[in-house]
């Protein structure tokens, strides 16, 4: 039986590898879901009724079912139903599948926050832009967007902090993120088994990372304090 | 030739007919005051002129050019209208300055974006800036150019909004109750700026509840009631010798208060 001091570097090393995967999934989800959410928001706000209804239907499906089921479907559907296992079997394939499920899921949540943000900018702002001869696109990017961002920082912050922890769900398709790495020491890994303390360490990783995210978001919120 | 000619403008919202056929003309350099009680259609008329509402019927002609003819759908497309609406400027009741820009940036934003849209080469930003600075001097706010809207009083914000409209050089500058959202002690500074514009023969349409101001500044007055022009004429006629019973009633409500 190794001592704790001997085990610690082994565990930390494994957790770091797992956490890197967690971070990657977190970053890719944000990068994908931020713009995709905006497109979906425009869909629900579309004056063309069919587009608006279809996007609202998609949002209903995605928000109405567990992310865990969506992960399983995205990962297994191509192989089991279409007989075309596009993801391959490796960690890279699992990551791609997880990232796609996460991006779609979070984009739907973001889109509703965006929609609320867009609708909360007074119509007078758009009208002022119109009478000054601006195009709709210019009005959105130069007038509405920043005001919308200012309004959505608090609710988006909530989603981002939830996302940090939701990444753990990717374990269901055996993505080797940090909880997977921590749990491995219970079953046995790197010559260590029956150890639950590495799992507590994973909680610490989440806490610290969410602390950093919270501080950064608060900083960003303050940056937008210069106008009302 | 009149600078603006409006013929038979009609507008219905749902089942409510808000404008029931409006006709009037405005001479270059003239100031038209539109008065009338709330709900008489004044604001809707102004919004139709600025294409924020599409009239159901009617023709709008500026300098002899037909900007909008509801019987010809080709004149009503979004891109057509965007170019034409620059003939008009509009100052809103609620200012609608862009909160994330300084006062100076508010004034310069639209011309900068317009030059981008038109792919203007060698756009002279410094010339635009000095023009904006002159406008700020004319509205008495040279020292507030770097301020954000929330740092300005309502009266100051409205004066910036006027400068923002002026820098687009509209043929006709419209005011939609420009002092209604202001504290009483702040209306004076805004009215003074508008008065100054009329002295420089700026062609204007002013929807207002400030009767005294309407009488002083206007070259022509329209009294609207229930979506029609009930009475119009020069200020002396309409204010001192109204012919219509409804005009008399309306004006007496104001003189009593």
Architecture of chain A, CATH level 2? Orthogonal Bundle
CATH top level assignment of chain B: Alpha Beta
DSSP strand (E) fraction of chain B? 15-25%
Write down how many β-strands of chain B occur, each being a DSSP E stretch of 2 or more residues.
10
Structural class given helices, strands, pairing of chain A? mainly alpha
Q: How many separate helices of chain A?
A: 8
Largest sheet of chain A: none
Q: Calculate the terminal CA-CA distance of chain A, rounded to whole Å.
A: 62 Å
Give the strand tally of chain A.
0
Helix proportion range of chain A: over 70%
Count structural domains of chain A.
Answer: 1
Rg of chain A: 21 Å
| Helix/strand/pairing category of chain B | alpha/beta
Number of helical segments with 4 or more residues of chain B? 9
- Topology-level CATH name of chain B: Rossmann fold
CATH homologous superfamily annotation of chain B: P-loop containing nucleotide triphosphate hydrolases
What do you see in this structure?
The complex is a heterodimer of chains A (228) and B (257). With 228 residues, chain A is mostly helical. Chain A has one domain: MetI-like (MetI-like fold). In chain A, 79% of the residues lie in helices and 0% in strands. Chain A is built from eight helices and no strands. Chain A has helices spanning 4-45, 49-64, 67-80, 91-120, 123-131, 136-166, 178-187, 197-223. In chain A, helix 1 packs antiparallel against helix 2 and helix 6 runs antiparallel to helix 8 (197-223). The model of chain A has no long low-confidence stretch (mean pLDDT 93). Chain B has 257 residues and is an alpha/beta fold. Chain B has one domain: P-loop containing nucleotide triphosphate hydrolases (Rossmann fold, 3-Layer(aba) Sandwich), CATH 3.40.50. Chain B is built from nine helices and ten strands. The mean pLDDT of chain B is 93.
């Amino acid at each position: 039986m190794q001592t704790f001091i001997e085990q610690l570097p082994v565990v930390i090393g494994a957790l770091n590898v797992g956490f890197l995967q967690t971070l990657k999934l977190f970053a890719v989800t944000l990068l994908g879901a931020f713009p995709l959410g905006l497109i979906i928001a425009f869909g629900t706000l579309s004056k063309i009724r069919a587009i608006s209804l279809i996007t609202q239907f998609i949002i209903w499906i995605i928000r109405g079912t567990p992310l865990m089921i969506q992960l399983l479907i995205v990962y297994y559907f191509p192989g089991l139903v279409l007989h075309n296992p596009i993801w391959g079997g490796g960690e890279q394939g699992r990551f791609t599948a997880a990232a796609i499920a996460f991006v779609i899921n979070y984009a739907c949540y973001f889109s509703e926050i965006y929609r609320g943000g867009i609708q909360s900018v007074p119509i007078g702002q758009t009208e002022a832009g119109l009478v000054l001869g601006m195009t709709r696109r210019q009005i959105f990017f130069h007038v509405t967007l920043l005001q919308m961002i200012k309004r959505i920082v608090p609710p988006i912050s909530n989603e981002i902090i939830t996302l940090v922890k939701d990444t753990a769900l990717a374990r269901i398709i055996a993505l080797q993120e940090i909880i997977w790495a921590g749990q491995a020491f219970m079953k046995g890994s790197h010559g260590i088994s029956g150890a639950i303390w590495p799992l507590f360490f994973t909680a610490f990783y989440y806490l610290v990372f969410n602390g950093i995210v919270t501080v950064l978001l608060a900083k960003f919120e303050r940056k937008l304090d210069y106008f009302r | 030739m009149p600078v603006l000619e409006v013929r038979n403008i009609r507008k219905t919202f749902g089942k409510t007919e808000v404008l029931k056929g409006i006709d009037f003309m405005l001479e270059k350099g003239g100031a038209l005051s539109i008065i009338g009680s709330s709900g008489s259609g004044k604001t809707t008329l102004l919004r139709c002129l600025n294409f924020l509402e599409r009239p159901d019927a009617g023709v709008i002609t500026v300098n002899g050019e037909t900007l909008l003819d509801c019987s010809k759908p080709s004149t009503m497309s979004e891109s057509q209208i965007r170019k034409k609406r620059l003939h008009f400027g509009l100052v809103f009741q609620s200012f609608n300055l862009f909160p994330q820009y300084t006062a100076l940036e508010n004034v310069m934003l639209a011309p900068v974006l317009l030059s981008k849209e038109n792919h203007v080469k060698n756009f002279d930003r410094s010339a635009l800036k000095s023009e904006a600075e002159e406008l700020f001097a004319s509205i008495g706010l040279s020292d507030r150019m770097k301020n954000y809207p929330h740092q300005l009083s309502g009266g100051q914000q409205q004066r910036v909004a006027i400068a923002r409209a002026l820098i687009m050089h509209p043929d006709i500058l419209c005011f939609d109750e420009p002092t209604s959202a202001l504290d009483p002690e702040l209306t004076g500074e805004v009215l003074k700026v508008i008065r100054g514009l009329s002295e420089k023969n700026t062609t204007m349409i002013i929807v207002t509840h400030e009767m005294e101001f309407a009488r002083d500044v206007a070259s022509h007055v329209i009294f609207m009631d229930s979506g029609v022009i009930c009475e119009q004429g020069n200020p002396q006629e309409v204010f001192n010798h109204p012919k219509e019973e409804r005009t008399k009633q309306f004006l007496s409500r104001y003189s009593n208060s």
